[in-house]
């Protein structure tokens, strides 16, 4: 009889202990988890800056030109340099200067869009012809202003030869006289009438009266002269020309006054 009583007491004590251990767990399970505070969603603010379109025709070709003592010694080769991304550099430099006042929109154009300007034409109105091209290319962009960067040309002092756009020229005759050049014109167009508001030839502030080339240029040694016709792969020329273009843009953009 005593054994039965002790057995029943043992079962009762074990059951009570098990219930005491499980009760807090059940109570904890019923306790609601604290609410999570989600970060407020940010709404993009409208950009009220006017649009400025950029069209750059500067970076299509690079010219390697040698001017000899006589005409038969003259040599000239034009090399495609789209891989140098000069026109991207132009757009980026303009954006860096104007991004507080304008939203920049790059205006793309198909190959040959400016080819008609190179065709000789009697009594050509270059500005009118270029303006018509700009109006066509920018259709649908509806920008307040357009900055258009095109190649320009210069006579080489002491010769009857012309250089244009981007290139390298040796015009030393018996002695080497090698120059890199980056010749361009910046025009600011009204976005509604496409009238030219201002235009400036790119400059480094160099004196032009006695200069060999009128426009941004720098003298280099003969190690810059390309030995291979594959100029597009010449990283040294690429970097030197990009630097020359960037410097001339930074100096000239302030004179264009696109915000006025």
Folded structure, characterized:
Mean pLDDT is 83; it is low at 1-20 and 22-29. The chain is an alpha/beta fold. Helix 2 (86-98) packs parallel to helix 4 (235-256). The chain has one domain (51-256): Double Stranded RNA Binding Domain. The protein is built from four helices and twelve strands. The strands form three sheets. The protein has a five-stranded mixed beta sheet, with helices on both faces. Strands 3-2-8-9-12 form a five-stranded mixed beta sheet. It has a two-stranded antiparallel sheet with strand order 6-7. It has helices at residues 2-30, 86-98, 126-137, 235-256; strands spanning 51-56, 61-66, 75-80, 103-106, 145-151, 153-155, 162-164, 166-170, 178-182, 184-190, 196-201, 217-220.
Q: What's the structural blueprint in terms of helices and strands?
A:
Blueprint: H1 2-30, E1 51-56, E2 61-66, E3 75-80, H2 86-98, E4 103-106, H3 126-137, E5 145-151, E6 153-155, E7 162-164, E8 166-170, E9 178-182, E10 184-190, E11 196-201, E12 217-220, H4 235-256
Parallel strand pairs: 1-4, 1-5, 2-8
Antiparallel strand pairs: 2-3, 5-10, 6-7, 8-9, 9-12, 10-11
Helix pairs in contact: 2-4
């Amino acid at each position: 009889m005593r054994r039965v009583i002790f057995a029943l007491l043992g079962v009762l004590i074990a059951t009570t202990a098990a219930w005491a251990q499980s009760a807090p767990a059940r109570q904890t399970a019923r306790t609601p988890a604290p609410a999570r505070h989600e970060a407020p969603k940010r709404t993009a603010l409208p950009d009220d800056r006017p649009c400025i379109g950029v069209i750059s025709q500067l970076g299509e070709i690079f010219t390697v030109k040698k001017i000899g003592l006589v005409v038969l010694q003259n040599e000239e080769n034009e090399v495609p340099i789209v891989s140098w991304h000069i026109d991207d550099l132009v757009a980026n430099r303009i954006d860096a200067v104007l991004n507080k006042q304008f939203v920049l929109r790059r205006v793309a154009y198909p190959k040959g869009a400016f080819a008609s300007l190179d065709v000789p034409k009697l009594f050509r109105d270059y500005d009118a012809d270029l303006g018509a091209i700009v109006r066509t290319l920018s259709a649908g962009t509806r920008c307040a202003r357009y900055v258009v960067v095109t190649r320009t040309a210069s006579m080489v002092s002491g010769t009857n030869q012309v250089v244009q756009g981007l290139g390298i020229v040796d015009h030393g005759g018996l002695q080497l006289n090698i120059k890199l050049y980056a010749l361009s014109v910046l025009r600011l167009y009204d976005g509604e009438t496409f009238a030219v508001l201002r235009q400036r030839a790119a400059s480094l502030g160099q004196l032009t009266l006695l200069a060999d080339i009128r426009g941004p240029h720098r003298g280099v040694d003969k190690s810059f002269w390309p030995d291979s016709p594959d100029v597009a792969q010449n990283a040294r020329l690429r970097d030197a020309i990009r630097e020359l273009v960037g410097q001339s843009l930074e100096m000239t953009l302030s004179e264009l006054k696109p915000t006025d």
